[in-house]
């Protein structure tokens, strides 16, 4: 089973690209959403996002325990779309969890897990200026380390900008509607 990591900036088209990958990869996809709805604006975003893919995906919401949910979802679904890892890392930080340990657990799960294709979506936050506060720098560093570790264990890695995917690793076919680079 070929697992994939899809990276890109905010509003880059990475989720739409990942959804196309998922729909081409299987007939029983699940959307594993990591957003925690802590304020009204985020609740609205989650509701809109859920409504936008409800006819194509089953949705599971899990802000922290990705590995056990991936393992359980693989019993029913042939594709698991995880959106998004940077929200997951934020949730782990808020919960005072060890991010490096959680990422290591996720990597181990992906290396052994073959029952379903896993597609991970994450924001690339390391391309801008150095953040001015320690917490933002810690978050950027943790996200960058997570991306490196996950890119190592995923078979396919894509970077999306302006809706256009660039294949960084692997040779999977581009999904319909995507421009090959």
Automatic annotation (TrEMBL):
<dbReference type="GO" id="GO:0008820">
    <property type="term" value="F:cobinamide phosphate guanylyltransferase activity"/>
</dbReference>
<comment type="similarity">
    <text>Belongs to the CobU/CobP family.</text>
</comment>
<feature type="binding site">
    <location>
        <position position="83"/>
    </location>
    <ligand>
        <name>GTP</name>
    </ligand>
</feature>
<protein>
    <recommendedName>
        <fullName>Bifunctional adenosylcobalamin biosynthesis protein</fullName>
        <ecNumber>2.7.1.156</ecNumber>
        <ecNumber>2.7.7.62</ecNumber>
    </recommendedName>
</protein>
<dbReference type="InterPro" id="IPR003203">
    <property type="entry name" value="CobU/CobP"/>
</dbReference>
<keyword id="KW-0342">GTP-binding</keyword>
<keyword id="KW-0067">ATP-binding</keyword>
<feature type="binding site">
    <location>
        <position position="61"/>
    </location>
    <ligand>
        <name>GTP</name>
    </ligand>
</feature>
<keyword id="KW-0418">Kinase</keyword>
<dbReference type="GO" id="GO:0005525">
    <property type="term" value="F:GTP binding"/>
</dbReference>
<dbReference type="InterPro" id="IPR027417">
    <property type="entry name" value="P-loop_NTPase"/>
</dbReference>
<dbReference type="GO" id="GO:0043752">
    <property type="term" value="F:adenosylcobinamide kinase activity"/>
</dbReference>
<comment type="pathway">
    <text>Cofactor biosynthesis; adenosylcobalamin biosynthesis; adenosylcobalamin from cob(II)yrinate a,c-diamide: step 5/7.</text>
</comment>
<comment type="function">
    <text>Catalyzes ATP-dependent phosphorylation of adenosylcobinamide and addition of GMP to adenosylcobinamide phosphate.</text>
</comment>
<dbReference type="GO" id="GO:0009236">
    <property type="term" value="P:cobalamin biosynthetic process"/>
</dbReference>
<feature type="active site" description="GMP-histidine intermediate">
    <location>
        <position position="49"/>
    </location>
</feature>
<feature type="binding site">
    <location>
        <begin position="33"/>
        <end position="35"/>
    </location>
    <ligand>
        <name>GTP</name>
    </ligand>
</feature>
<keyword id="KW-0169">Cobalamin biosynthesis</keyword>
<dbReference type="GO" id="GO:0005524">
    <property type="term" value="F:ATP binding"/>
</dbReference>
<dbReference type="Pfam" id="PF02283">
    <property type="entry name" value="CobU"/>
</dbReference>
<comment type="pathway">
    <text>Cofactor biosynthesis; adenosylcobalamin biosynthesis; adenosylcobalamin from cob(II)yrinate a,c-diamide: step 6/7.</text>
</comment>
<keyword id="KW-0808">Transferase</keyword>
<keyword id="KW-0547">Nucleotide-binding</keyword>
């Amino acid at each position: 089973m070929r697992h994939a990591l899809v990276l890109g900036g905010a509003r880059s088209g990475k989720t739409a690209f990942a959804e196309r990958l998922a729909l081409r990869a299987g007939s029983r996809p699940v959307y594993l959403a990591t957003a925690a709805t802590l304020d009204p604006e985020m609740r609205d975003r989650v509701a809109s996002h859920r409504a936008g893919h409800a006819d194509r995906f089953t949705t599971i919401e899990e802000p922290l325990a990705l590995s056990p949910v991936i393992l359980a979802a693989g019993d029913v679904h042939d594709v698991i779309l995880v959106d998004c890892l940077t929200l997951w890392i934020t949730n782990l930080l808020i919960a005072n969890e060890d991010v490096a340990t959680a990422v290591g657990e996720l990597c181990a799960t992906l290396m052994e897990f073959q029952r379903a294709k896993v597609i991970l979506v994450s924001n690339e936050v390391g391309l801008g200026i150095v953040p001015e506060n320690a917490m933002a720098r810690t978050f950027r560093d943790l996200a960058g380390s997570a991306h490196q570790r996950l890119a190592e264990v995923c078979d396919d890695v894509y970077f999306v900008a302006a809706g256009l995917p660039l294949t960084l690793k692997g040779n999977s076919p581009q999904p319909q509607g995507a421009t090959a680079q």
